[in-house]
Each structure stands twice: as C-alpha cells, then as structure tokens.
Amino acid sequence: MAHALRLGRRRMGQCWPNPAVGCVIVKDGRVIGRGATAPGGRPHAEPQALAQAGAAARGATVYVTLEPCAHHGKTPPCAEALVKAGVARVVAPLADSDPRVSGKGFEHLRRHGIEVTTGVLAEEAARDHAGFFLKVGEGRPLVTLKLANSFDGRIATATGESQWITGPEARRVVHGLRAAHDAVMVGAGTARSDDPALTVRGWGEVRQPVRVVVSRLIDVPLMSKLASTARQVPVWLAHGSDAAPATRKAWQSCGAKLIPCEIRAGRVDPHGLLRELGEQGLTRVFCEGGGQLAASLLSADLVDELVGFTAGLALGAEGRPGIGAMGVDRLSEAPRFVLDEVRAVGPDVMHRWRRA
C-alpha cells in the first residue's frame, strides 16, 4: 500500500478534478502491475495496472489507494474491471466520499466474491486525498499557503526588493510544490510587483498548474508574463462585478478565463473564491501570497497547510511583512497549525505545518 500511495503522490496536480490514485497488483509475492491516475484524470489507476498484469491478474491481490469507482462516466467502472479480471482480493484504505461511489465499489466487489480489506494506511491516504475530499464535501479545494521570509518574517525590503530572499535550492523545492498542486494562486499586488510566471520549471514535462490571480478590479498589467502566456498556460482571474468591462474584455482577448466572485468588505470573499475554484474542478491550490491574500485566507480559516522557507537574514521592521493585518487581539484568536516537518534546504530552513 505504501508503494501505491507513492505512485499516487507522483500524480498530484496532474489529474484534477479526479483524485490522484495509485494501484499495485501483487501475485505470489511479486508485483505484476502498477498504475496511477493519468494526467487529466483518465484512465484511472486500476485499468492501467490491470493492463500491465494481463491474464496474470486472475487470483491476484490489488492494492489501491481509494475505493474503486462504481459509476458509469466517461470510462467504465473500475470495480467492474477488477471483477472481469478475476482478482481475488482488493485492499483499499478508504471509501470514496463521492456519493456516486461511496461504498458502492466495495459492495460490487464483495457481491462478486472478491475479498475486500479496508483501513490499511488510512491516515496517510486521507491526507493524500484531502483536496479531493474537501471538493466533494465542502465544495472547495485544499489550500497550501507558502511564504518565503527573512528570519524576522519579512518578504521584501521597504523598497519592495524581494528577489531573492531564499536560495536556489528553496526555489527548486517551490517548483516541485507547484507541480503537486492543480493551481498556483497570488494576489494582484504580487502579480504587479513581481511579474511572476507562476509556472513549473526544472521538473521535466508536467501538466502546468492553472495560474489564478485574485484581483477585485483586475488591476494587473496587460504587459506582463501572465498575459503574454495565457494561451499557453491557463490564467484565471478571480474578480468582482465592478471590474471594468474593457479590462475584462482585454484579458479575455489574451486568453484568460474570468471567474466572477462575491465581494465582502471591499475584497474578494475568500469563501466564495474557493467555492468558485472548487466548481471549476480544482482540488489543490498553492497560494504564494501576497500578504493581504494570505491574511484573508488565514482569517477565514481556509488554510489547510503552511509551507515556510526561512532565510538567515534580517530586514527589520521597515521591511514588508509576509502576512497582512488580521485583527488578532488575543493569542487564542490566532489560527494554529501542527508542525509536520523541518529540514534544511540549501542555506535556508523549510518548515511544513498542517491544520490542527
């Protein structure tokens, strides 16, 4: 099962709106088939592994990281494929939370005489599929907030210089994290000041993440990397109803997709924003700031994971903070996270936290 989970993790960010599932088929102590959800979501992991195993799949044990699907969609149900192949046993950590599947896949297997074992490495699988479960259950994707700060929590000097606070090793890890998410999201301020490409570079051929810019008025320059590459790599603009029609039309002519969102207290409402992204099929969103967007998501309790990169330099109080004002008066009001990992990345420190 650990091997199947690793296979699935390699497809994170590549197969939305479907979950990143891994599958391993074993017979007589030997792996005879492997598969993972294909880029774009199809084919699923099980038929790929069954194709590798061929006739040897009869009587084999299948380890799959989520309940096999049981509904007819664009492809036949995986549960039916497993029955047809004649496998003897299916091991899966979790039931699928999609109501079209939940429990039905296991029921179909058992009805046809296949032994079903559940609960194996369930906690690990639940974390791997958390984005998919959130989209099904709450209508929103999982949100990872990334910040690259100086030791004293600044993301830029007082003049706005920010490239580069952390070193090349940290930046390479960030590109890998982008690749493991369906979308990379920034606020308008970051899009204006940094003119970022927000693409994955240095990790080979991957399905590039959608680039989401949150900007009530779409006040992002048309002479930018995002605009000039919108036809090659998707750009989605989350905006308010008061964005100028001419601005909307200009971005659409560049190839960008417009996502109208609710406005609350003068800003794009974070709950409405994530619901809109969930409706578009996103399961995992990697937010890279800036400070106001980070504060908005944290204040709304919508951040599921924190990834920080801390560099060994100090910029002082006049430097720009990584997170904007949140109106926290008491420690008990501050969102808290549980530490998952700390490690050195080149000259910097990477720390990962998850929702408590």
UniProtKB/TrEMBL annotation:
Catalytic activity: 2,5-diamino-6-hydroxy-4-(5-phosphoribosylamino)-pyrimidine + H2O + H(+) = 5-amino-6-(5-phospho-D-ribosylamino)uracil + NH4(+); 5-amino-6-(5-phospho-D-ribitylamino)uracil + NADP(+) = 5-amino-6-(5-phospho-D-ribosylamino)uracil + NADPH + H(+)
GO molecular function: 5-amino-6-(5-phosphoribosylamino)uracil reductase activity; diaminohydroxyphosphoribosylaminopyrimidine deaminase activity; NADP binding; zinc ion binding
UniProt name for this protein: Riboflavin biosynthesis protein RibD
PANTHER family noted in UniProt: 2,5-DIAMINO-6-RIBOSYLAMINO-4(3H)-PYRIMIDINONE 5'-PHOSPHATE REDUCTASE (PTHR38011:SF7), DIHYDROFOLATE REDUCTASE FAMILY PROTEIN (AFU_ORTHOLOGUE AFUA_8G06820) (PTHR38011)
Active site: E46 (proton donor)
Annotated binding of NADP(+), by residue: A148, W164, T190, D194, G290, G291, Q292, L293, A294, A295, S296
Binding site for substrate: S162, R178, L198, R201, E288
Keyword Zinc found: yes
EC number in record: 3.5.4.26, 1.1.1.193
Lineage: Bacteria, Pseudomonadati, Pseudomonadota, Alphaproteobacteria, Rhodobacterales
InterPro entries: APOBEC/CMP_deaminase_Zn-bd, CMP_dCMP_dom, Cytidine_deaminase-like, DHFR-like_dom_sf, Eubact_RibD, RibD_C, RibDG_C, Riboflavin_Biosynth_HTPR
Organism expressing this protein natively: Salipiger thiooxidans
Residue ranges constituting the CMP/dCMP-type deaminase domain according to the UniProt record: 1-117
Entry annotated with the keyword Hydrolase: yes
